[in-house]
Amino acid sequence: MHRCLQLAKKGVYTVAPNPMVGCVITVADPSMPYGERIIGEGYHRYFGGPHAEVEAIGAVPDPDMLVGAKVYVNLEPCSHHGKTPPCAHLLIDKKIGEVVVGMADPNPLVAGRGLAILREAGVKVVVNALQTEAQWLNRKFVVFHAKRRPYVLIKWAQSRDSYIGRRLGTAVGLSNPRSMQSVHRARSHYASIMVGKNTAINDNPTLNLRHWAGKHPLRILLDAQLESPLDLNMLCDGNKTLVVNEIRGDETTWPSYLKINPHELEDVLAALYDREVQSVMVEGGSELLQSFIDRNLWDEAWVYDTPHVLGHGVAAPKLVHQKLLGKYPIDGDTITQYINNISIES
Fold first, then answer.
1. Type and span of the H or E element at 185
2. Which of 118, 141, 164 is where one domain is finished?
3. Which of 88, 117, 162, 319 has the fewest CB atoms found within 10 Å of its own CB?
4. Is the pLDDT of residue 193 over 50?
């Protein structure tokens, strides 16, 4: 199963909104350290492409070796026709003897049906092998289906005295170049990035990928009364932006306009869920970040602690219900990663 997860990670930039899945096929072999020999392996390479089980089966040199073989897969085999045929039926057709699964699929289209189909066909099924690791790998996919909203990462950089910037609309660069590169790397893993009107106007951010390769995320601007100038970078550079507001609704061109009260964050996230936006990275400002915290609508937080001292300015958000995951030094800055205890437990 560790190998499955290792393989699955190879699809991190290419399979979304599908989950990352790896598959390993073994046969009994007493001469091997664990009594099994790998005869095929594969992973889901790109959205719409063959699933991991198909790739692994295709890698087996002799189809007869599949009869009675054991399959390891970190996510329940699918049971429905999507862009590819159901993998559960494929495993049955190949006369697989046992399937070891990392976690059940939270997608309502599957949700245990793949496991039931295998068992009904006489295939031995073992579930929840390295479940915690499997769920963490596909945490965006899990939250999207289980909570019917996007996975929410909140992120900010703060000074040593806990300010995120100056007042009066003065932008302050706190993060060093290596930290900025890590921000862009994180952006490449998210479907969308969200900021409020004040951040858009005061900082005029681009919110695209410049220091890391990948697909530009959808930018989401919360601007209730459409006060943002149309010559802002995120409204005029040709990349996709969705403006959430109370005045206009038009999703036929870019920038697009979604008519919802942007202060009702639950409604905003529900609308993104309906549009199959699986994850959102909230980058600012402090008021918007604190609103996500106060409403318990965050799943993960990255705080960039920098050595700068501002003395005064906009206070950094204050987390609640956080659980520390780790601290990572990066050229004088420190990235502290948290998860939301309550979000995980519920």
1. helix 177-187
2. 141
3. 162
4. yes
Given 120, 141, 162, which residue is the final one in a domain?
A: 141
How many domains is the chain built from? 2
Q: Which residue blocks in 63-130 are alpha helix, DSSP H?
A: 87-93, 113-120
Q: Which amino acid is residue 104, in one-letter code?
A: A
Whose tokens are 């952006």? That residue is 187
Q: How far apart are CA 223 and CA 246, in angstroms?
A: 8
| Residue pLDDT, tens place only, 144-189 | 999 999 999 999 999 999 999 887 555 677 888 899 899 999 999 9
Is the separation of the CB atoms in 300 and 156 below 8 Å?
A: no
Domain match, 93 and 177 both: no
User: For residue range 222-274, what is the model confidence (pLDDT) as tens digits?
Assistant: 999 999 999 999 999 989 999 999 999 999 999 999 999 999 999 999 999 99
Residue with tokens 């932006």: 241
Which residue shows structure tokens 């699986």?
278
Known catalytic residues are 53
pTM above 0.85, yes or no: yes
pLDDT digits (tens, 9 = 90+) for 126-138: 999 999 999 999 9
